[in-house]
Amino acid sequence: MKRKIFCSVLGLLLLICAAYVVSSWRMVGKHQSKIWLAECYSLEEVQQMYSEYPNFQVNVFISQDSTLLVVQGEDSVSGKPIDPFFEFLAEHPQSHLWMDMRNLSDENLSLFMDVLVKLFHQYHADKRQLVVETSAWDLMRVFTVSNFYTVYPMKAPNPSELSRNQKDSVITRLSRIANSGCVSALDIPSKWYGPLHNQYKEIDIGFVTRKQGTSQLGLMLSPIGRIMLKDPRMHIILLDK
Fold first, then answer.
1. Angle of the 109-123 helix axis to the 83-91 helix axis, nearest 10
2. CA-CA distance, 162 to 160, in Å (whole number)?
3. What is the pLDDT of residue 198?
4. What b/e readout covers 198-236, taking b as 16+ CB neighbours within 10 angstroms?
5. Is the dihedral of CA 81, 37, 93, 231 positive or negative?
6. CA 209, 211, 217 angle in degrees (round to 5)?
7. Which of 8, 96, 185, 228 has the lowest tally of Cβ within 10 angstroms?
8. What secondary structure does DSSP assign to 104-171, as a single string?
9. pLDDT at residue number 182
10. What is the CATH number of domain 31-239?
11. What are 187's strand-pairing partners?
12. 3-state secondary structure of 46
């Protein structure tokens, strides 16, 4: 009798797991507006992945000759001009580009903005297609008031590695940035999603995040992944190629 009950319960659990996997698999490709492709370097890979990921992220440096270069990591020497990506945006008005500005500073802030304005004018793309990110959050105000979607990347250890006072200090520091009006969203590690989502309910700020080493199916299988996809404040989830 006990064995029969055990087998019945086990069969039910397996059926539930199978149904969860199938439902997760069916969700793949259903959230293209929220799931973006991270760390793109060439337009060719953007074009190859376009049907699955119409929105993508690049790292950029501005060179001494005022050229905006798409780079890999921190490499500012072998970058490629960003122009083809803006031409792609103009040809695909539903696509969006996340631009991580690696060397934005007080000295080149006006130059960055001037180059962006010229690119939009030259290729007739829409600024609503662009997300701009930099760790210099106080410099982002000029982009935010110009109706760009702006992002500040949070840098902190996992909350499980911090004491209560340390976590409170991180949350307080970020709340000053979130309330400053300088940025549209915080780029947060997924492990900080729960604490910040609960603490910032009264703050008008969006969230974006990166799930490294995770596929779309892996994101759908993760309970926290599903929660983030359903959260209207979580605007973008970057996934690796």
1. 40
2. 6
3. 81
4. ebbeeeebbbbbbbeebebeebbbbeebeebbeeebbbb
5. negative
6. 125
7. 8
8. --TTTHHHHHHHHHHHHHHHT--GGGEEEE-S-GGGGHHHHTTT-EEEEE-----GGGS-HHHHHHHH
9. 95
10. 3.20.20.190
11. 153, 208
12. helix
Residues in the chain: 241
Helix H or strand E encompassing 49: helix 43-49
Distance CA 86, CA 84 (A): 5
Torsion 64-65-67-71 (CA) sign: negative
**Tens of pLDDT, residues 29-76:** 566 788 999 989 999 999 999 998 999 999 999 988 889 999 986 655
Please state the φ and ψ torsions of residue 64, each to the nearest 5 degrees.
-65, -25
Beta bridge partners of 98: 57, 131
Supply the pTM of this predicted model.
0.85
Q: What per-residue confidence (pLDDT) applies to 82? A: 95
| C-alpha span between 153 and 137 (Å, rounded) | 9
Residue written as token pair 């209560």: 164
pLDDT of residue 27: 57
pLDDT on residue 130:
96
CA distance 191 to 224: 9
CA–CA distance, 47 with 186 (Å, rounded to integer)? 28
Cα separation, 4 vs 24, in Å, equals 30
Q: Find where tokens 């903005």 sit.
A: 113
What residues in the chain have per-residue pLDDT under 70?
1-31, 73-78, 212-213, 215, 217-218, 220
